[in-house]
Design a protein that fits this description.
single chain, mainly alpha, Arc Repressor Mutant, subunit A, 2 domains, 8 helices, about 70% helix, WH-like_DNA-bd_sf
């Protein structure tokens, strides 16, 4: 189950990055490491099986430049391949970006979804942010309960580590509250603007 979830996150990350621009495998690896490395250790060994599957499903294509020298072509074939998104790949990406269930609230799933929020509908963004906040509030309750049970039985360094974890989650909840407030304000402003434009009297050409 965990591997399947991780594969879904990698698929979203690859399709999202290729939507921004076509890339060589090496450049794609570097961008993925920056994106996924913040949330988990990214294994390069998982990238090429993912690309192979996306190619088989028609979601991406390989653009192979012509090499005049056959030996050189064999040596540099993989490094020269540029991966591009297909129309089916763009449609698949849009479907993935509308998913706002529990998988998008977990640490790595949330991070990758958040990285592509500029391509995500406003209502989906809000659902993901609220889901993430609920997940972290559950985590806060569990950490506080654990602290209450173990405070008297652990050494000062373990206690500091537990407090650090608690503060990190509390900080992210505050950050999410700010983002949610901003998203709601923007949506309300857009709704008011839409209503005022709808109610505005139209010029009948008199």
């Amino acid at each position: 189950m965990a591997g399947k979830k991780g594969a879904g996150v990698l698929e979203l990350a690859v399709l999202g990055l290729l939507h921004e621009s076509p890339m060589h495998g090496y450049e794609l690896r570097k961008r993925l490491n920056t994106l996924l490395g913040m949330f988990r250790a990214f294994s390069y060994g998982t990238l090429y099986p993912c690309l192979k599957q996306l190619l088989a499903n028609g979601l991406i294509v390989e653009d192979r430049p012509e090499e005049p020298n056959a030996t050189l072509a064999l040596q540099s074939r993989r490094s020269k391949i540029v991966y591009k998104l297909t129309a089916d790949g763009k449609e698949r990406l849009q479907n993935l970006l509308t998913e706002a269930g529990p998988a998008s609230w977990e640490d790595e799933g949330f991070g990758v979804h958040f990285a592509f929020f500029s391509h995500t509908r406003a209502d989906v963004r809000l659902r993901i942010l609220e889901g993430r906040r609920s997940r972290l509030e559950e985590r806060l309750e569990a950490v506080r309960a654990a602290l209450g049970r173990t405070r008297e039985r652990v050494d000062s360094y373990t206690l500091e580590l537990q407090n650090h974890g608690l503060e990190s989650v509390e900080r992210e909840v505050r950050w999410l509250n700010e983002l949610i407030g901003r998203e709601r304000a923007e949506q309300e402003q857009q709704a008011r603007s839409f209503e005022s434009n709808k109610d505005m009297p139209r010029d009948k050409g008199r």
